């Protein structure tokens, strides 16, 4: 099993600092009335691993001299979609979660109506940012065809994410098999993680570049691996480490990989998925250091 | 005061039939698990005046031989955003409305969780459709620059709509002046109506065409006029005619134009806004028949 080497942690830490700054810049570009502004800020800035934007950056870094502004916009947009989904997920009519990343959730602080609207506007803000000139300080302009591809990827993944939510709700208290569970997670979590990678990919590679299918394969496996690891951590980690209520899956009789195949087999499955992900990256050789480091970090993470 | 002539009603009826068919085609293009599929269908297909898509079509018809597929996608997309906003608006944590267009609202039929998710996916579906090849039967292809403009307009209007909701909630039970009330409505209702027009406009006119500012002016005034008329109807129409609970604004002490300036002055103001809208359309001469007919219909409507 991999461990978090200082190098791997550093790569993610650098990406996190960059995205933190870019998220702040992006939020400041919007004129939003209070208390919605504070709720949006709360939903976006209370931390998190920033895995999706980090993957977007790292994918784009496979090719030097890319349109960095378009990558930064994509990274911000995908994280805003993720944050909207969390704000809505935590609502009383959904998971009714009071704690997220060690902080009170959006609806606890701002009320249900404002938390709902914060999620709603975060989704449209994501598409606004994609189509904007944000970060475009060299006035290099935006290739409309690239933005269009980014939008198609993000919108499709956002729809899939909602479908995954529904499949997940439908499966509660039911016995599902591995195929059904994977279908849930490929939609619910996998689609947006893969989108983060593919938005980076289409920004720097042309449609016919053999890098594209390799990155799609990487995205599919790492997205699923992320969810398997999440399920494992829900059992093995404490609420304190996790920053959200641990053991919640078992409590609501959610189907998880450890419940389905046992903890040890689930851990082996996560490792196996990561191995597949690294195989896809092998195509890029040394260029994929950043993606490799983030993948190692994801497998070894404790929260 | 204008009355609904058969010609005006026919124009809207034709547009409504077209959008109804296009909405069905669009929904059928998505693979969505139940019960979300049924909830999305309920939210979209339970009727409504289809004012926004009708305005989008009519604007594009100002110029013959336009990219009709791109206009149809824009019309569907703007209506899906409108339908998402209604599904979320009706939720218990918002207006808690049980009746919409004479039918039980989405959360009454499908539960709060599914109604929330239906709204969420409708928003991403709107952007998916914009970036798709739907209706593109002549394989004429999509000009990415036009789609990008459509997306920018729709995303910005969607964000403004949410801001308007917040301003509206903040104003409940408070005395607001006309400037504040207009600010609420320009965001809450006006932005999306204007977006419907501008999405049609950018599809058929180049950025430097003098038609663009004229249509922006038309959109601004007709959007506000629509809301003033809505406020008036909330007082003058019955629940039966309206298809939603009448008198609701007064009940929750919402600031409205009749409350602010009295019913008669509000009616005169609506007429005045329409006159301004028609002035903007004068630039297009006979070409603007369809937009004129829809505008007349909106002013004379009883629900």
Automatic annotation (TrEMBL), chains A, B:
What does the entry list under GO cellular component? cytoplasm
Q: Does the keyword Coiled coil apply?
A: no
A GO molecular-function annotation = metal ion binding
Keyword annotations from UniProtKB, A to Z: Isoprene biosynthesis, Magnesium, Metal-binding, Transferase
Q: Pfam families, per this entry?
A: polyprenyl_synt (PF00348)
Is Transferase included in the keywords of this UniProt record?
yes
**What protein am I looking at?**
Polyprenyl synthetase family protein
Q: Which InterPro entries match?
A: Isoprenoid_synthase_dom_sf (IPR008949), Polyprenyl_synt (IPR000092), Polyprenyl_synt_CS (IPR033749), Prenyl_diphosphate_synthase (IPR053378)
Database matches in SUPFAM superfamilies: Terpenoid synthases (SSF48576)
Cofactor requirement: Mg(2+)
Give the UniProt family note.
Belongs to the FPP/GGPP synthase family.
Q: Which GO terms describe its biological process?
A: phospholipid biosynthetic process; terpenoid biosynthetic process
